[in-house]
Specification:
151 residues; 5 helices
């Protein structure tokens, strides 16, 4: 199993949990929740593709409530970690073919895709932090170094 990739996915789950905790503040901006739901929708889309399934039915921008996000986040976190364990080091670098929501075919390795999933989540968590600050709220601290310090 790729230790580095597993570490990054553990970080991603930790950061998502921190964001969910920050949403307990009163008057969390709706845009912040939309962005978080998108993180989860994208993860589900990529998991579907990595499993060789048609991802066209998966909503990339699902409309989720906070109550719906929490169990979905746990499922995605466990599924991503399980996928890395199941694939093992060798299969992480074997290209897979998939079709995007725009109908274009591509080929990437699971390692590339899962690395993208982590960075995609970090990008949108940064947007969430901006939304929270603009609303006068305190965003979650989701820096990678903070995760390493707590681990």
């Amino acid at each position: 199993m790729s230790v580095e990739l597993a570490d990054l996915l553990r970080y991603d789950g930790w950061a998502n949990r921190r964001v969910l905790e920050s949403f307990q503040q009163p008057q969390t901006p709706p845009r912040a929740l939309e962005l978080f739901a998108h993180i989860l929708g994208a993860q589900e889309t990529w998991l579907s593709r990595l499993g060789g399934l048609d991802s066209s039915a998966v909503e990339v921008w699902p409309a989720l409530t906070l109550a719906e996000c929490e169990p979905r986040q746990r499922r995605m976190e466990h599924a991503l970690a399980g996928l890395v364990r199941m694939l093992g080091e060798e299969k992480l670098d074997q290209p897979i073919e998939y079709v995007t929501t725009a109908g274009k075919a591509f080929q990437n390795t699971p390692r590339q895709i899962l690395t993208h999933v982590v960075f995609h989540g970090q990008h949108h968590r940064g947007q969430i932090a901006s939304c929270m600050r603009e609303a006068g709220l305190t965003p979650a601290a989701t820096d990678l170094i903070a995760h390493f310090r707590e681990s």
